[in-house]
Design a protein that fits this description.
- By secondary structure, this protein is of the alpha/beta class.
- The strands form two sheets. A seven-stranded parallel sheet has the order 8-7-6-9-10-11-12, with helices on both faces. Strands 2-1-3-4-5 form a five-stranded parallel sheet.
- The chain folds into two domains: about 130 residues, NAD(P)-binding Rossmann-like Domain (Rossmann fold), CATH 3.40.50.720; about 190 residues, Rossmann fold (3-Layer(aba) Sandwich), CATH 3.40.50.
- Strand 9, helix 11 and strand 10 form a beta-alpha-beta unit.
- The chain has 14 helices and twelve strands.
- It comes from Xylanimonas protaetiae.
- Belongs to the D-isomer specific 2-hydroxyacid dehydrogenase family.
- This is Hydroxyacid dehydrogenase.
- Keywords: NAD, Oxidoreductase.
- It holds the Pfam family 2-Hacid_dh_C.
Length: about 350
């Protein structure tokens, strides 16, 4: 029987332990002729010279021309995380080396998190975090349905949710939201009418989406084109009582403009709930008003894969290696032509 490819995993030890435990390493070894784990590319010239498949992840040093030159037999890079930006240099694609990513797998927990946030925010239970739920005292004292008048705008039925970016995560969010009685609209300049029809959503311009949605959830990639996409002008048009969610990249929301908008709404009484899993800067300084504002929930990058969800990423790498060994096309190959505008 022909031996499998020589596989080298270049991962920080803490990352390796979280993704590839002994069971997952065993799954790699079952497919490979040899599996070596390195923390970086320092030394190990003999191993790199034999390497045919490189496994990367969070914290892996840049795979640039100098690194690729040391791996003359390299034919595939299997990335165990989302974006390959900052990990895989353009030269890898240019030399015809296959690149695969687990961005699709990582989109699953982000979409789950977003769905939970949207549904809970529409029910009014996320913020303000320091005060009882509206109508709590009346309900506790037996007012029952009579207290519902205090939360007349609360609920999910018929609410419009605007999804900014039909990325992998954005599409999964759309699919999840459409299972509920919500109106889902999408802004993405690269989404064709046919693709929007397949998603079952109405495409809107960004200005209209922001101004008319009850919830605006951000899933576009960080590019020069999307920098501060939600700026002072657009933030000012958010509806009274709107919810803004960002699980994508902090740079898409102008932090200073958001702080100013929250301050204005505190003065004029218009409502705004904000959920940020990513920020700019990241982390926020301890003095940031966003950290003390009861209308704002800041979470520390918990939307993406954490804990047990990391095993899904590792399994995805194993599955891609199995396809490579079997001569089947990779399921999650990175398209270099669209990389500049994707997450």
């Amino acid at each position: 029987m022909e031996s499998g490819p020589v596989v080298t995993c270049v991962l920080e030890e803490s990352t390796r332990r979280r993704l590839f435990d002994e069971r997952m390493l065993g799954a790699l070894r079952a497919l490979a002729g040899e599996v070596t784990v390195l923390a970086d590319f320092t030394g190990a010239d003999d191993v790199l010279a034999r390497t045919e498949v490189l496994v990367t992840g969070w914290g892996t040093p840049l795979v640039d021309a100098a690194v690729v030159d040391r791996m003359p037999r390299l034919r595939a890079v299997l990335h165990s995380a989302g974006t390959v930006r900052g990990i895989v240099d353009d030269v890898v694609h240019e030399r015809g080396i296959l690149v695969s990513t687990q961005a699709e797998a990582n989109a699953i927990p982000v979409a789950e998190f977003t769905l939970a946030v949207v549904l809970l925010a529409n029910k009014g239970v996320l913020v303000p975090a320091t005060t009882p739920y509206p109508g709590y005292d009346e309900t506790r004292q037996g007012a029952g349905v009579g207290s519902h008048g205090t939360v007349a705008g609360v609920g999910n039925y018929g609410k419009r949710v605007g999804v900014v970016g039909a990325s992998r995560t954005g599409r999964r969010v759309v699919e999840a939201l459409r299972r509920h009685d919500l109106e889902v609209v999408v802004y993405d300049p690269y989404l064709s009418p046919a693709a929007a029809d397949l998603l079952g959503v109405a495409p809107l311009g960004l200005d209209e989406l922001v101004a008319t949605s009850d919830v605006v959830t951000v899933h576009a990639p960080a590019t020069p084109e999307t920098y501060h996409q939600l700026d002072a002008r657009r933030l000012a048009t958010l509806r009274d009582g709107a919810v803004l969610v960002n699980t994508s990249r902090g740079s898409l929301v102008d932090t200073a403009a958001l702080e100013a908008e929250l301050a204005r709404r505190a003065d004029d009484g218009r409502g705004l709930t904000v959920v940020l899993d990513v920020t700019e800067p990241d982390p926020l300084p301890p003095t940031s008003p966003l950290l003390s504002d009861p209308r704002v929930l800041v979470t520390p990058h918990v939307a993406g894969s954490k804990g047990t969800e990391l095993r899904r990423l590792a399994q995805g790498v194993v599955d891609e290696l199995a396809r490579l060994v079997s001569g089947v096309p990779l399921a999650h190959r990175v398209d270099h032509a669209t990389l500049a505008r994707s997450a």
